[in-house]
Amino acid sequence: MKSKSIAVYALMSALVMVATFVVRIPMVATDGYLNLGDGLVLFCGVAFGPVAGLIAGGIGSALADMIAGYAHWILPTFLIKGLEGALAGLVFYLLNKTGKNRFLSASVASVPSAVLMVAGYFFASWIMKGSAAVAWTSVPGNAIQGGVGIALALFLLAATSRIRNFGSLVGKNQFYDVKTEAPTEDKKPNE
């Protein structure tokens, strides 16, 4: 692993943790909370690939649970959010190979990832609470969280794609066009 990739994974994990921790809406029935972290998890998976989505989604979200006092959710969150980010990255990669519009590919890749998150928390809540009825109470909130996450991820992808040379700044990625300028006659390579 290159040091630039490690730095990007660490930075994205931290951003996921902050987005998850800062805006928390408690869900009393499931003893969890709604947050904005999914937007960063999806963004990371689409922009930087499945491995980055897995690492940033799993570690960043689990750290937020630990800091927020939801230690009982650390393992389920690590698995669910890590898989959410990895799936977004994998589906985007497969769709983007077809030459489709990258924003359309990102939108399509985000939907099954958000569905996986909703289903994952449903089953985790069912196991932890021992009641499917209680677990169903998490579905509407998590579905809203997933929808908001998709919108936030697409906004971040659109905003960062307008930053000149953003792709080359962040290193290996699968969303941005990484272009390097060739030296022209007016510019010497050492200038």
Any low-confidence stretches, pLDDT <50, length ≥5? 178-186
Strand order of the largest sheet: 1-2
Number of domains: 1
State Rg.
Answer: 18 Å
Molecular structure report:
The protein has one domain (3-170): Arp2/3 complex 21 kDa subunit ARPC3, CATH 1.10.1760. The protein has eight helices and two strands. It has helices at residues 3-22, 37-48, 50-68, 74-96, 102-129, 132-136, 138-161, 166-170, and strands at 25-27, 32-34. The protein is globular. The two termini are 31 Å apart.
Features:
191 residues, mainly alpha, Arp2/3 complex 21 kDa subunit ARPC3, two-stranded antiparallel sheet, 8 helices, globular
Summarize this structure briefly.
The protein is mainly α. The protein has 8 helices and 2 strands. It has helices spanning 3-22, 37-48, 50-68, 74-96, 102-129, 132-136, 138-161, 166-170; strands at residues 25-27, 32-34.
Topology:
Layout: H1 3-22, E1 25-27, E2 32-34, H2 37-48, H3 50-68, H4 74-96, H5 102-129, H6 132-136, H7 138-161, H8 166-170
Antiparallel strand pairs: 1-2
